[in-house]
Amino acid sequence: MPPTVKAFFDDATNTISYVLRDPQGTACAIIDSVLDFDYASGRTDTASADQIIEWVRAEGLSVEWLLETHVHADHLSAAPYIQQELGGKIGIGDRITVVQDTFGKVFNEGTEFQRDGSQFDRLFVEGDSFHIGQLRGDVLHTPGHTPACLTYVIGDAAFVGDTLFMPDFGTARCDFPGGSSAALYESVQKILALPDETRIFVCHDYKAPGRDEFAWETTVGAEKAANVHIGGGISKAEFVEMRDARDATLAMPKLIVPSLQVNMRAGHMPAPDEQGDVFLKVPINKL
Length: 287
What we know:
Oligomer: single chain
Number of strands: 14
Shape: globular
Order of helices and strands: EEEEEHEHEHEEEEEHEEHHH
Mean pLDDT: 97
Low-confidence stretches: none
């Protein structure tokens, strides 16, 4: 049977988090959770994560996995908080080590910051599989937006992170350190090679011009036919030219500085100082 998927939309960051459950049991996975963060005050809040926790408990579910599609640059992960409340193992792609090395330098992290992915419970590689109850999940390595991006294919559902958006909004930016529009093109081809009826669940939606409602579920067939950036058989050269030109006009995400520092640590804050206070760094002219 296909998995049951419950979506949670975060208005502040336009992020969609998902709870995927085994329809024949109580096992579930939580994908791309959000820790609320007010940059101006430096305060965190767990309201968004608490909504997910309350729903999982009300449904009597057991969390087996807390899955990250990539190191997000636009919101902080709530995975450690949810793990503390509900359990589960935190997973991400094994290329997290590349991201940690890159941004460990950007943020001038000391040698105490481990760059081996050990902050996570499981590092997935292309072709890996895992289980959520009786459901099998398969891992596609889909870099381009970041080197560590994954797509999780679970039953008839594919969770693509930022690789693809809704057909009327297009594809992810590729101008972060380690990103590549050429790699993204190849990654999208992997996703579009899945059966046309495969359900695609995106990580963000910003309502394309002319659309009144937020949306986060589409299909491989719809993306192939109508994605405004990569549908209809566009060539790799055409896509790279379009994507690179578009990326050159984009501002950095508002929460990129705190998000990267926290998410490369699997959602944990940097270690506190001797007084127990936690600080984030702002690199100047580095991003």
